[in-house]
Design a protein that fits this description.
Elements lengths: L1 E5 L10 H15 L3 E3 L8 E5 L13 E4 L14 H5 L4 E4 L2 H10 L5 E3 L17 E6 L12 H11 L6 E6 L5 H15 L8 E5 L5 H10 L2 E4 L8 H8 L4 E4 L4 H4 L5 E3 L4 H22 L4 H18 L21
Parallel strand pairs: 1-2, 1-3, 3-4, 4-5, 5-6, 7-8, 7-10, 8-9, 10-11, 11-12
Helix pairs in contact: 1-10, 4-5, 4-9
Length: 335
C-alpha cells in the first residue's frame, strides 16, 4: 500500500501531540511494509491527514482519511466548518469513544474508527522495567553456609521459569566463589532437568556498590527475596523497605517483627512455596506490564495501518470528494 501522509511536517515536531501521532502511524505503516511519502503522488493508494481539520485544504486523491481529535463538546465559530471538512473524507480516525460520540454529535457522518493515541514505551516505562527482576542479597554464593539458603532461592527460580520468560534473578553477593558457583549451578540445572542454555537469566553481582548503585538495584527489582534460616536483623530488607520494594521472606524472627504487614512469607526450606510465590509475582508483573503498554505508539501505528489496509481493500469509498480547495475558518489554534 502506498500512503501519502499530509501532516504539515508535524512528524518533524514531536513535541506536539499530532507530531507524535504522525511518527507512530508512519512507523506502523512502514513496519507492515507500506510505502510512505509526504507529498501528493499519483500512485498513492490512500491519503492520510494527521492534523486538525483546519489544515485540510484540498483532497486530491481518494480514499482520504484523517486522524483528528477535538477537546470540546461544542464548536466555536472559527471551527464551525470542521464537520463539513471531515464529511468530504472517507474515514475519520480518532482517539477515544468519547471523541467518536462527540464528532457524531457535532455532525460528522462518515465512518469513524477509534485508534487510541500511544507513547513510546521503549522510553516511558515503570521503574521496574520490562523484565521481572527478583533481587536477593546472599553472602557466600557458591559456598556452603549454615544461614544463607541461596541454593533454595536458585532452585525455586530454575524450577519456575525458562529462557522464554521475561524474568531475571539478580544476586548481590560478597565472599564470591565463582568456580564453586559455576559447579553448583550446573548441579542445580541438572537436578531440575534443563540445560545451561535453557535456563532463565541469572546475574551475580560481586563488586562493591555505592549507595546510589544499590538503590538502583532495589528500584529496578519487582520483588526482593530474603531467604535465610536465621537472622539477627536484615540490613538489605531495611534498604528494600526504604526503597518501597515488596518483600518475600522466610517466616522467622526477627523478620516477622520488623517487616511490613504486606510481606509474603514462606517457610525455611520450602522450595515449592517459594516457587509458587515467584510464579504468582510474575503473573502480577505481566498484568502490570500489559497495563503500562496498553497505549503504546507501536500499537497505535499498527492499528492505524490495519484500518487503512481494510479501507483500501474494500475499494468502495463512502463519501463524495472534491478537488476544489476547502475554505478554512481562519487562523485557528494549533492545539
Amino acid at each position: 500500500m502506498r500512503v501519502w501522509i499530509s501532516d504539515g511536517d508535524r512528524h518533524k515536531n514531536v513535541e506536539s501531540g499530532y507530531g507524535q501521532n504522525s511518527v507512530a502511524i508512519i512507523a506502523g505503516l512502514r513496519e507492515r511494509g507500506h510505502e510512505v511519502r509526504f507529498e501528493a503522488f499519483p500512485e498513492a493508494d490512500v491519503c492520510l491527514f494527521v492534523c486538525p481539520p483546519y489544515s485540510i485544504r484540498q483532497i486530491p486523491i481518494r480514499p482520504a482519511v484523517a486522524y483528528s481529535v477535538h477537546e470540546l463538546e461544542t464548536l466555536p465559530p472559527e471551527k464551525a466548518n470542521w464537520p463539513e471538512i471531515l464529511n468530504r473524507l472517507d474515514l475519520l480516525l480518532t482517539a477515544t469513544e468519547w471523541n467518536r460520540r462527540n464528532w457524531q454529535k457535532l455532525g460528522v457522518t462518515i465512518p469513524i474508527e477509534v485508534v487510541p493515541e500511544g507513547v513510546d514505551t521503549d522510553v516511558y516505562f515503570p521503574v521496574t522495567g520490562r523484565v521481572c527482576t527478583f533481587l536477593c542479597v546472599h553472602s557466600n554464593v557458591g559456598g556452603g553456609s549454615s544461614r544463607e539458603r541461596w541454593r533454595d532461592t536458585v532452585q525455586a527460580y530454575l524450577e519456575s521459569f525458562d529462557q522464554r520468560d521475561r524474568v531475571r534473578l539478580v544476586i548481590k553477593t560478597w565472599d564470591w566463589r565463582p568456580e564453586q558457583w559455576e559447579r553448583e549451578l550446573g548441579k542445580l540445572l541438572s537436578e531440575v532437568g534443563i540445560g545451561s542454555s535453557e535456563g532463565p537469566a541469572i546475574e551475580v553481582i560481586s563488586n562493591r556498590l555505592a549507595g546510589d548503585e544499590m538503590r538502583g538495584l532495589y528500584h529496578g527489582a519487582w520483588l526482593f527475596l530474603k531467604n535465610a534460616e536465621r537472622e539477627g536483623w536484615s540490613l538489605p530488607c531495611t534498604e528494600a523497605i526504604a526503597c518501597g520494594r515488596p518483600i518475600a521472606a522466610t517466616r522467622i524472627e526477627p523478620l516477622l517483627s520488623i517487616l511490613p504487614s504486606d510481606t509474603t512469607w514462606f517457610d525455611v526450606g520450602d522450595v515449592n512455596a517459594l516457587g509458587t510465590i515467584l510464579r504468582r509475582e510474575y503473573e502480577r508483573f505481566q498484568a502490570s506490564d500489559e497495563a503500562s503498554t496498553r497505549y503504546s505508539a507501536r500499537a497505535m501505528g499498527r492499528n492505524s495501518a490495519v484500518v487503512l489496509e481494510r479501507l483500501v481493500q474494500q475499494g468502495v469509498w463512502l463519501s463524495g470528494w472534491s478537488e476544489s480547495p476547502i475554505q478554512a475558518g481562519g487562523d485557528h489554534e494549533r492545539g
